[in-house]
What does this fold into?
Amino acid sequence: MLKVKNINLKGNLEAMDISDLETAIKRTELGLRKHAGNHLNTINKQVLTVSSTDNPEVHSKEPPKWGLHCGASQKQLILPPVPVEPLTVQARSKSAPRVSRSSQHQLEMDMKIMLDTESINNKAALKQQNYETKLPLLTKKKSAPMCSQKIVKGHTVSNLGSLPASHHRDSPLPLLKEDSMNGILSLTEQRLIPPAAKITLQTRAVASKAGPFHEFPRQHKNSAVGEISSRVDPENPDTITLPNSKETISIKSSSSKGSIAPLPPSSSIVSARKSKPVWTYPAQQLTSELQTPSQTQPPQMSPCQSLPDLCLDCDIAVYHGTTDQKAPGFLAFKQRYCLSWGRIAFFLEHAEKLLKDYAVPLATINCKKLVEVASDLEFNENPTKTDILSVIKNQSTVEKILNRPGQRYKGQGGTEMAATKIQAAWRCYQARKAYVCLRQQQWASGVIAVSWLLHNHMACVKKTLKESRQRHLENFYIRAKHLAANWNRIRTSRRTIIHIPSLGYSQCIREHIPDLAVQQNMQMGRLCDILDANVDVIYICPLHLSEELLQYYNKLLGLQAAVRSGNPEDMGDLQDRFKILTPEAINSFPKHHMCLATLLKYSPKTIKRIKILIQSRDAYIIGGVPHKDDLAVADMLNVPILGSVPEVAHLYSTKSGSRRIFASAGVPTPPGEADIYHHDQMMSVLSQLIIDNMEVQRWLFKVNDESGGNGTAYCDIISHLKCYHWVQKECGKYSPEIWSQKWAHEPALVKISQELPGLLAQHVQPVNEKRFPTWEKFLQTFLSQGGVIEAFPCSENVTNLTVDMLIEPTGKIKIVSSGDQLHADGPLRSSGTTIPQRSVDPAVLHSLCLKIGETCQSKGVLGYFSVDFVTFIHPQTMEQQVWATDLDLCYSDQLALTQLMLYVTDGNLDCHSGHFEVPLGPKKTEPHRIQREETEPPAPLSNWCAAASSQLRHSSLSDTRYRDLLQMCKAHGVGFDLQERQGTVFVLYEDEKRYRLGMVTIGEDLQGVLLTFAHNLFIIHQEISAPNMQGETNFKMAIQDIEAILGITAENKLKL
It folds into this structure.
């Protein structure tokens, strides 16, 4: 039983504070006078907002004014002296019982709680005593039933009471009168009250007067736990008896320091589930606290949890998307959160709809999580699927059902949804199909449009390029006519020769030429055109030459005066007579395999400098292998070209074109056939050639556009042809006249044609094995470009020679150089020459060359070109045969070396007689001897010769600087004697890789020149090579070829 000190029911007071009591009475009367009109509507819904951070009473530990100490027990309360009349308490039944001792005690506790509603001990007393107390019933006012208002979905309830006036001054923000009348939740939504504020219901002080109890709803009377009567045992008021249960629950006071959860209103009844503890129904609390989820404190571990805690711990079962809203648990939960029920109902409605749509049989919603998630939603914000799943207790099971394919069509409106889905899918398919078709059409139209634009652009470019080239060609002919008309004057007057040693082969051929720039720079001998005092030379170099190389050529070309005088001190400086220019475009196109003419075309600075150098002078261009860009450069410089039109040069420089020229000229050629482009044609032609020339052992296959022996292959067919003896017998059956008939060859042709493919695939040997490692690759190139099949001379001693010719603009034809070939890279590749040639009678050779020259002139050929011949002694007739084998319509390496030979010797080459005449140098005179005033007779002439090569290579040269190489050669006596006008001169090409060089050896007789040439190679090889590292070189093969020419015996053979 609760004990109150210093107070009794008679009104006798011992310790009391009259001023505090009068203040409380005045405040109560003032509140009743102001709010009597709407008291019943707001008695259960008024809230007081007290900020947890701003209210000092929350954190203060000072005892209240009414004498309740912090350490006092809940049953020891010191109340101020106030006269209290006994309250009449009505039971739930209609007949009021007689006031007993327990009823008097209950009235005392009611009075104490009403006087101090904020006391924590009073709240604990309410939790410990399970009874109901009726509020005073005011007369002349009709009381409204509890929770009789219509539930509104949303964030607020329409008829909430206004904010109590006592809170206006303590509000964190200034409040207007209109705002205070709209209700506490309206202020919360307007952010006038902080969301984290502690909200507490305020119970107004009322006059002590008997009032009726509120009736419980009918559905609560037959709950799972049963109706609970509010009978208190007079002997033991802490014991509560449950009518429908045989058990008795004892509730004892506890002074736990934990906070007590607020009690629900007396009308809230929740049906307890079997897994939950039994709920008790205490009397209607006069003070309740609503705390936000973040401020909810953990419940105190007591023998029986309070009703609000059970509301939070309960679950709501949703069967097939429907919640039993008449269930006691649901109604208790609804009554507990009536102020925020709009949000919760809004959330539940969406959850039910989701569960109905997916035909979920059972879902259990956790009330605590439901309150938390619903309170976090913004205004008019629909809960997401994730939000709904987060409040479901059996989330994994429900989520598995929701994710089941086709589950949506089993729920509410599933048939309509399936029909809608099918229609949408069909329409999407049709739309997608139409869209794809449209995009394909758009793509096709775009491709057509772009292709058409590119075609038009390409057509315009081709048209412009064609017009430009046509204009270049027309200007070429105009300037060629002017050059022909003034040639006699120009060649004897002051003039400038622009040398462009360009290799204008097709792109596919240039790509397979190793070190194209070095190959184009092997004609440095063109600088020696300054031998004519009226000539200045502009040499276009495809490489950047170092200062060392420039000084070397400056000294080499300065030897002219010293050679003529025989005195090295007379060496001159001729830098103003020659210029070596490098196009700047070689840096822009390092790996594009462009010819030198193309690089010069795209080098405006070099073009501008050439224009300055040739200003007000007669000038013309001497090119290399003609290219269309040669015409463009000539048009830019406005100078003529001493050469052929590129189309004419390319046509007759091919192997098939050469045979057509030779056939037109009537000169002898090897047995063979030209213009072969098909495999069957090749087999039939070769079979016929074998039958017609049974004595020929080796046959050559030459690709049309290749040069320098790179596109040549050979095969000794007779030695590998199995049916050869049968063919000889077949030939012996007929007389020569009958055998010449085609019908007699048919059996032999069939047999040879059947055997040839396998024989060629096995025994053909390409000359350039790096370019054509197999017969199949060579055959593919041969048939794609076309080629010729020729017979190799059937003799052991075969000599190849080259003749350089010039067709002047006036039409005059002359031979400018001739020489017998040296073969340092095999019998079918020329690597050097001996000048002049001495293997053929000069008169016979001159006659053949004139015929070829006249034919070339008739075809439009102009400028320099070279003809290759082969000579041998026929084994049957024992007569010398001379065949014309090749024609190159360009400036040759042999001619460049010839120019250097003539420059350093000041000699003259007479190709008509085959003599190389060099005047002997003046004799040395004594210093004391007085020279005669009269003119001395001219020096006698001597028939000399020279051995020259531009294709010498040695990999060890890369490790040796040119200065060291020249010093080494000088130490071994390798050099040029200015007085004797004989010796060796080197041609240096570049100073980056330095593995190639050219060499010219000049002497009085051929044997001595060849021996000196071979000795020089031997010396250089010994000096730059280690015994165990010989390097990659062709020096050895050059020496072997020289020994074969001279017929030197084994004891005189040079050793490497």
Remarks:
- The CA atoms of residues 408 and 613 lie 91 Å apart.
- The radius of gyration is 62 Å.
